[in-house]
Structures are given as C-alpha cells and as structure tokens.
Write a structure and sequence with these properties.
heterodimer; A: about 375 residues; alpha+beta; OB fold (Dihydrolipoamide Acetyltransferase, E2P); Dihydrolipoamide Transferase; Chloramphenicol Acetyltransferase; four-stranded antiparallel beta sheet; about 30% helix; B: about 325 residues; alpha/beta; Rossmann fold; seven-stranded mixed beta sheet; five-stranded mixed beta sheet; 11 helices; 14 strands; about 20% strand
C-alpha cells in the first residue's frame, strides 16, 4: 500500500486545496499519470501518481484544504483491499473547511467503523433512486430513523440548490480574494486620470508589429527607472518602503479561471521586440494554466489594459504590496484641437494611475502620468 | 334505497336462496322457535317449517350431520349459536369439512355454510365473546367471510350459498341491529374483494366486522388532526384482497391492521407479514396491529372495555405510526 501525501510545491506552501481528482476509487493508475489537481495559494498543479497500481481510497475529497504531508489517498497493488488498512487519523483540515464538511460532505471513516443508518424501507428506496447517500440526511423519525419526509425535504433542498450554483472558491480565486481584500482595506488608493494622444505611438507599434501593451511596458520601464518611487513595495506593518532596482512589470491577464498576473523581469533591460515575445508567451501560458510560480512572482509594478474591451477609463486596484498600478483604456479616434486651433482626428486614450497615497503624493502621480504621456506622444521605442 | 337491519338482510339472503333451491335447509340451536339468540332469524320465523328447525345442544352432531347432508348433495346452513362453541365440534370442521374435497381429489362438491355470531356483547364473558376467525383462516379448506354491513351480509351469504366449497361466516353480535341500505334486487358479492370504505392518503387501516365501524369513527376524528386515513374492509379473509391492500399501502406508506380478536397471532399478523414481504420498499414506518389484549374476555364491563380494542386504539395506532 502506497500513501499519497499532499505535496509541497514551494517553500512557503503549508496546505493545498484539492481542485479535482482525475481518478475514482478502484481505477487503475500508472506511474506518472495525472492523479489529481492541487492548488496552492499561488499556483495550480497536476500531481502525478508516483507508482502504478489501483487507487484504493481517496481520503481527502475535492474542494478540501489539506495540510502538506497529510495522507490524501492510498494506492495498492491489484487485488489489495482498503479494509486491510486503518486510517490512523483524519486528514487535517483548516477550521473553515471542517465546518463546511459537517454540512455538506461525507466523513471519511473506515468500513468497520461504519454505523448502520436507520431508515425506513421506503426512505432507502427513494434515496437509492435519487442516488442519495443516507449519511448526508438527518432522520426525524423515532430514534432518528430516516423516513420518506426526510428524504423529500432533503431533495427539495437539493433541487432548490439547483436553482443557483454554489461554487467553492478555487485556489486562484481565493488568492485573488485575499490579496484584493488586503489591498482594499489596507492601502489608501487614489486614481489620477490623464488623456493621452496615442497617434504616433500606434504608428510605431504597427511598424514594429508589437502589441500596445508591449509598447506601454517598454515606456513604463523607462519611466519607472526615472521615477523610482513607483517601482516599490510598501509594508505597512513594518512601515517599510522598499525601492527596487530591478523593474519587474506585472501584466494583468484575463483567464478562464480568473485574473493572473505574470511578470516580465527587468523590463528596462529588454528590447521592445523581446518584451513583445515574452509577453505573448506569458499570456498564452496563463490562459492554458501552464504558468509556473516563477512567472508570477516578484512584480514591482503592474499594468492592466482593458482598452480592447471598450473600457475608457477605470480605477484599478493595487496589486499589494506594490504602490501603484497603471490602467489603460480604449484608444479611440477623436476630433482634437492641435496647434493653431486646428481640429484634427487623433487616436486618444485615457491612462488611469492608482497609487497608495500613504507613500505617493498626488503631484508625484501627476508627474508620473505626464512622463508616460510624453513618451507615448513622442515615442522612441528603441 | 330502503334501509334494513343486518339481521333482516341476512334473513332475506337465506329466504331468497331457499326459495330458489330446495336443497338448502338450515338448523341449529334456538333458531326456528326463537329466531336466534341475537335475532338473526327473526325474519324467518314461521317460514319453511320443515327446512328451518332447531337441534339439541350437540355441536359434534350438528356439524357432523351437516357434513353428511352436504356429502349427499344437500346444502345445509348451520347456525353455530356462539362462535366460541365451534371448538366443541371442531374436529368435524377441521378434520372433515375442511379436508373432504381435497382428500377425494375434488370429486365431490361440499355446499355447506357455517354461520353464527361472534365477538363481544354486554358482558358475555370468556366463553361467549370470542372472535376466532383466525383459526379458520389458518387451517386450509374453508372460505371465511366476515361482513360488516347489511348490504355485505346479504351479498356474501348469497354468494356463499352458490359456492362449491364450505364457507364459514362470522356475524358480530353488535352488528345485527345496525341498519343500512340494501337494494331489493338480487345481487351477490364476490369473495376476495375488499371495499375501501373511506379513501385517505396518510395511513391505511385494514379491518373487518365491528372494527370497520370503529375505524371509520377513528378516521373521522383523525380528520380533525389533519390526518387522512384510508379504511379498508376486507370482508373476506379466505380469500383476502391482497391487491387492494398493497395498492393502498403503496399510496399511504403506512399500515395499521385492526381486529377485535387477540393481537397475538391474530390474522393481522398474516396481513402484516404479506405486506412486508411484497411491499417492503413502500413502508415508511413499522406496521402496527390493533387487537385485543392476550387474555380471555373478562366478565366485568370495565375490564371488557379494557381488553377489547375500539376506535381510540385505532387513533392511537395511527398517531403512533405517523408520530
């Protein structure tokens, strides 16, 4: 019998959230074959089976948060039976999870400890027809006997449940939730908005065959080098303001599973072409959930572009512990008054800079936006 | 429709069949001159003096002679005076009447009807108050009918007189005087067809005889508690209407069987057993039986009430089964 334990993906990982089991109890598994999907605070990974055999028992179920090193499943040789093995202790679950478990999931107990559930013959029949596990139902009959009405009550509750779908937060969503709550409750975020002429910038982008975001990252890296106070983290507990030499720009990417922020490292040292190439790779990896932990850590500043989705301007929320984030709006052709009061058509867009006012003043933000605007309006993307 | 008493309906059934069939004759203790101890034959007084007559007190002879008469093609109707006394002549019934058709390979018919009163009355004590229908349901070879209304007694007795097998009919003493609608035209009621006396959804009460009336009274009171009880009068125990009972249990998922005879090994146990064998998956609670306490019937009126089930016991059982 081989014990499958909750793996540790990184140094800081304390527990893992079981997203999905790819195998059922009784299934054959081959060494190296994906067994389950686990997400940590930072990343979702497939866990491969370390041995070949039969998946005898799944001890920790989907949607459970399990401590690293805890036995979550047992794999045995063909013909081996689970009954021969005693689970010594329940898998450790976090407090929230164990409360939730009482309500909606089945406790893992070894068969010999299983108690007979009292239920009327009719209740058993209806339960069987509806594929219900009687252990999930509380009997209201004499001595706790489960009767027809208990099953019907349960079924009506379940069918009510079908009117809406309760989704438990995935590892990624939980990370997003925790980070954004922290950002919202902690930082004092303000947003400055500026309208920028993108006409020249777009010409160059087109010539160089790179994306708008790549071009903006290129410019942003230069501005961050000049105005270093934006390329920083703020630790409000320690009251430490950490200024970084390396400019690692995080890019907010919309994926099926939610927002991900892959990072382009030392962007100030990269050519536009390289940025464009790296960005494309990172976005593709993020969208197919193939991104690694290295790709998403250490960002010092974040850019978020909603222009392609028709948003004109918005108030981005900080990606903590960063101190600022740049939001990019839609580029739109507009009649503009240029020199000598002539009206011409220009490609315009709004840039929104959200910043933590505890460490960055409004004038700093204004200067930062102005600097970016200057680069965009007279671009030198070499 | 005209209303007549249970005793009058019984008398009409016998008279009408006697008029049609000269082979039918009836005898027993205190019927021809007295009209039966509970007035069952009152309406027959003075009719067919050579075919309705009294006998000495000798059950062994009464049942034995009926067997002999039936064997030579007569159609005797024997009054057993008190159901309790059936035990006095039981060997003629269980060893002969119930076996002869079987042991002769069905070569002959046995037109023989045993009928008489059973059950409690006003302090008739241990030897004159019994309900012993279970004995005849248990020993194979005789059909058992137990009507609860004037309509049923007439239809079932007429059917019994057309049967080729021996039949025993129990008439509860306290039912002889109840009145009910009985049509004037000729009719019979087939055996093995129960009557749903009252439709309901929450619980099925299977019963016969006096307990049909008690159960209906219980159902009326249970209605006030929002409980809908279905009352089934089996009317005949051999054969009994399994189909109707099981269909009802499938609907209500709860079964109470109520009879006046003792609860211990009373026929309710048979019904209960068959239902759990054939409709187990439809039961939402254990089946409950209502029956007399397992003692001989006391003489004292208050003790008779204590031992004998009535509508209150049915209500209690229903409430227990539905909690």
């Amino acid at each position: 019998m081989y014990e499958i334990k909750m793996p540790k993906f990184g140094l800081t990982m304390e527990s893992g959230f079981i997203e999905k089991w790819f195998k059922k109890e009784g299934d054959k598994v081959k060494e190296g074959e994906p067994l389950l999907e686990v997400s940590s605070e930072k990343i979702t990974n497939e866990v491969a089976s370390p041995v070949s055999g039969i998946l005898l028992k799944i001890i920790a179920q989907e949607q459970e948060e399990i401590k690293v090193g805890t036995v979550i499943a047992l794999i045995g040789k063909e013909g081996e039976k689970f009954q021969e093995y005693q689970v010594e202790e329940e898998p450790e679950r976090s407090v929230v999870e164990s409360e939730r478990e009482e309500i909606c999931s089945i406790k893992v107990i070894s068969p010999d400890r299983e108690r007979r559930i009292k239920a009327s013959p009719l209740a058993r029949k209806i339960a069987q027809e509806n594929n219900l596990d009687l252990s999930r139902i509380k009997g209201t009959g004499p001595d706790g006997r489960i009767e027809k009405c208990d099953i019907l009550n349960f079924l009506s509750f379940v069918s009510k449940e079908e009117e809406f779908k309760i989704e438990k937060l995935s590892g990624l969503r939980r990370t997003i939730m925790e980070r954004l709550s922290k950002s919202f409750h902690d930082a004092i975020t303000l947003t400055n908005i500026i309208e920028v002429d993108f006409t020249e910038f777009k010409k160059i982008i087109k010539e160089q065959k790179v994306s708008i975001t790549s071009g903006l990252i290129f410019i942003l890296a230069r501005v961050l080098k000049e105005l270093n106070k934006f390329n920083a983290h703020f630790d409000s507990e320690k009251k430490e303001y950490i200024l970084f030499k390396n400019i690692n720009i995080g890019i907010a990417v919309d994926t099926d599973k939610g927002l991900m922020v892959p990072v382009i490292r030392e962007a100030d040292k990269l050519k536009l072409e390289t940025i464009n190439k790296q960005l494309k790779e990172l976005v593709d990896k993020a969208r197919i959930s193939a991104i690694s932990e290295v790709d998403i850590k250490d960002s010092t500043f974040t850019i978020t572009n909603l222009g392609m989705m028709r948003t004109d301007f918005f108030t981005p929320i900080l990606n903590p512990p960063e101190v600022a984030i740049l939001g990019v709006g839609r580029i739109l052709k507009k009649p503009c008054i240029v020199e000598e009061d002539k009206i011409t058509i220009r490609e315009m867009a709004y840039l929104s800079l959200s910043y933590d006012h505890r460490v960055i003043d409004g004038a700093d933000a204004a200067r930062f936006l102005d600097k970016i605007a200057q680069y965009i309006e007279k671009p030198e993307l070499e | 429709m005209r209303e007549i008493t249970f005793a009058e309906a019984l008398g009409e059934a016998i008279l009408e069949e006697m008029e049609k069939d000269p082979a039918i004759f009836t005898y027993g203790e205190d019927i021809a001159k007295q009209g039966g101890i509970f007035g069952a034959y009152k309406s027959l007084l003075g009719k067919f003096p050579d075919r309705i007559f009294d006998t000495p007190i000798s059950e062994e002879v009464i049942y034995g002679s009926a067997l002999g008469a039936a064997l030579v093609g007569m159609k005797p109707i024997v009054e057993f005076h008190f159901a309790d006394f059936l035990f006095t002549g039981i060997q003629s019934i269980t060893l002969q009447i119930e076996k002869i058709r079987y042991m002769t390979g069905g070569q002959g018919k046995l037109h023989l009807l045993l009928r008489g009163p059973d059950g409690i009355s006003n302090s008739a004590a241990a030897q004159h108050s019994e309900c012993i229908e279970t004995i005849f349901m248990h020993v194979p070879g005789i059909k058992v009918i137990i009507p609860s209304t004037p309509y049923d007694v007439k239809g079932l007795i007429k059917k019994a007189l057309q049967e080729d097998d021996p039949v025993i009919c129990f008439e509860h003493k306290m039912l002889y005087r109840i009145k009910g609608p009985v049509p004037e035209e000729d009719y019979t009621i087939p055996f093995g067809i129960a009557e749903v006396k009252r439709e309901g959804n929450d619980v099925t009460v299977v019963t016969i005889s006096r307990m049909v009336h008690e159960s209906l009274k219980a159902a009326e009171e249970l209605k006030n508690d929002g409980i809908s009880a279905e009352i089934i009068d089996l009317r005949t125990l051999v054969p009994w209407d399994k189909k109707t009972v099981i269909e009802s249990v499938k609907k209500t998922n709860h079964l109470v069987v109520a009879h006046e005879t003792w609860k211990r090994a009373g026929w309710g146990a048979e019904i209960t057993s068959v239902v759990q064998e054939e409709a187990f998956d439809y039961l939402d609670a254990p089946i409950i039986r209502v029956g007399a306490k397992n003692v001989p019937m006391p003489f004292a009126a208050n003790l008779q009430d204590f031992v004998t089930p009535n509508y209150k016991d049915v209500i209690e059982a229903v409430k227990q089964i539905l909690r």
